[in-house]
Amino acid sequence: MESKQVENKKVEVIEPFEDLTGVGAPYKKETRSQYLERRNQEENETRDIFYKEGIKGGLIFSGVATTGIAAACFKSTTFKKSVTWNIRTFLVSSAFIAGFWIYGETASMKLMKQRLYDEMDQYYNHPNEKKN
């Protein structure tokens, strides 16, 4: 009878947490000033890559939009007459904004996910190694 009870015991499953923050996260030995300094550095890195990649994406998208509008004006006189300069300017500027946002957000999310992956890898796979 006792062996059946041992077999029927529920095994406590500890759900893994997605990152090293939150309620179930382990205690980090880091002072508040170190934490704020690290977060400030991470924020600056993320902002820099967002701007750098965003400008690149904005230039690509606006270049494609400008080329498309110029080709349409060259091929179609109806398009050239019906689409005013205000609309053309709006299309090109909208393309820049879209490219800026898409490329910048993608690059910054990739950086944040890689940073989180490195932190989790350090915690689980190399707990005794010091991080530089």
Summarize the structure.
This protein is mostly helical and 132 residues long.
Describe the structure in your own words:
- The chain crosses the membrane at residues 57-79, 85-104.
- With 132 residues, this protein is mainly alpha-helical.
- The protein has one domain.
- Helices cover 74% and strands 0% of the residues.
- It is built from four helices and no strands.
- The termini are far apart.
- 11% of the residues are buried.
SSE arrangement:
Blueprint: H1 2-8, H2 32-75, H3 77-82, H4 85-125
Helix pairs in contact: 2-4
What is the string of helix and strand elements?
Answer: HHHH
Give the overall form: elongated
Describe the biggest sheet? Answer: none
What integer is the average pLDDT? 84
The tally of strands reads: 0
Helix percentage range:
over 70%
Tally of helical segments: 4
End-to-end Cα distance, whole Å, is 56 Å
Strand content: under 5%
Number of domains: 1
